[in-house]
Amino acid sequence: MPSTEAQSAESRTTEAQHRAYRPAIGYARVSTDEQAREGVSLDAQQSRIRAYCEAKDLELVEVLVDEGRSGKDLKRPALQDLLERCGRGEVAHVIVWKLDRLTRRTRHLLSLVEDLFLARKIELHSVSESLDTSTPHGRFVLTLFGGLAQMERELIGERTRSAMAHLRVNGLPTSHAPLGFRRNGSRHRMVPVPAELETVHRILDRWRAGGSYAGIARELNQEGVASKRGGRWHASTIRGIVQRRDWYAKHLNGS
């Protein structure tokens, strides 16, 4: 009978092997308008992914499929499943027929590369584009993608700062109008929005009556009251309105 120490060592070995087991997952996608195009059918993609993994001696455990889905956003069931598995560290290799099967938007691809594949040390393979990030050339390409993502963020920040500076130089406000108001055509002054002001008064009245931020947000959501941007209410949004109550009093008295 094995000793307790031997059993413990065997258990640790099994756990380590389980943690180290990170197989290859394939991903295939076709949009409705691509169904009839030669070479992009789901069967063709899956066949090429399997052949690639066999040639590369990769253990392919599954090919996840999104059928009739556009590549313009990431909200696809199979892709979300793939990304969640990658995030949990369950995947070592992601195999696609072409990179545009993941997404057709460059910024989305750059984000996936930097925030997921590079961060989690996941190898990305594109069959038709001969991209294999387990090779020095492939790693260089992936790192280049990461550098492009960083440059894009910096350019966006630079454009934002430049736009803000332009507004300040011209005496224009640099923030959006709060709930209850909108900017007029010249942006120099705000004009009241009666329907939104009713919501402001209601929020402040409920708060003065002892309502919590979360409770007020929940009531508004349950009644289908739209927020400033048409989304859901949150406790932080209610808190911001309450903290601005003196500002509201001043501007409402002067309007």
From TrEMBL:
Gene Ontology BP, a term: DNA integration
The entry's keywords: DNA integration, DNA recombination, DNA-binding
CDD domains with a match to the protein in the record: SR_ResInv
UniProt xrefs under SUPFAM superfamilies: Resolvase-like
Biased composition (Polar residues): 1-11
UniProt-listed InterPro entries: DNA_bind_recomb_sf, DNA_bind_recombinase_dom, Recombinase_CS, Resolv_N, Resolvase-like_N_sf, SSR_resolvase
GO molecular function: DNA binding; DNA strand exchange activity
Residue span(s) of domain Recombinase: 178-255
Region annotation (Disordered) ranges: 1-21
Domain Resolvase/invertase-type recombinase catalytic: residue ranges: 23-171
PANTHER family referenced in this protein's UniProt entry, alphabetically: DNA-INVERTASE FROM LAMBDOID PROPHAGE, SERINE RECOMBINASE PINE-RELATED
Name listed for the protein in its UniProt record: Resolvase/invertase-type recombinase catalytic domain-containing protein
The organism of origin for this protein: marine sediment metagenome
